Sodium/potassium-transporting ATPase subunit beta-1-interacting protein
Amino acid sequence: MGKCDGRCTLLVICSLQLVAALQRQVFDFLGYQWAPILANFLHIMAVILGMFGTVQFRFRYLIFYAVWLVLWVGWNSFIICFYLEVGNLSQDRDFLMTFNTSLHRSWWMEHGPGCLVTPVQDSRMAPDDHHVITVSGCLLDYQYIEVLSSAIQVLLTLFGFVYACYVSKVFQDDEDSFDFIGGFDSYGYQPPQKSSHLQLQPLYTAG
């Protein structure tokens, strides 16, 4: 019963991770954030693999999923520190998120709750095919929205890691106990054999 509860809980956590990652992927696409897009894609693949391993009792898939979650915590911790400008990190370098291929920033910068976007006309600061804007009135700045999104990812990841380790341990114990009793190769079990010889009996008739 404990194994079933653990598997069901892990599947629920993986489902929440998948929904959160897909939601994040959509907004990163809208903001042309190529580095997060790549990381989100790898995370989605790892979560799907973890769900498959949970359903199919695949111990190695769960180990891979758990290892990826450690890397995922590291990535989201970097995102949090980046937007909070911890240490030498600065939001002035946020073009790193686009692999320096465009000047786009987080989609939430212009579309956050309550944000009022005002274009600046005839600005010499704008490169070709770009325009300068001012954003005001936001109820929550875009960097805090990004931090909140990463914090949710970290929280789900911690729960997923704990249950992935628990379920994989249960799977491993089941495999060890199965090997201990000999599985289907036990010498005490002999499958029925079909005889290939037919014994002929004489047929008597009344004369």
User: Anything to note?
Assistant: Strands lie at 116-120, 132-136. Residues 6-103+141-175 form one domain. The CA atoms of residues 179 and 186 lie 10 Å apart. DSSP finds five helices and two strands in the chain.
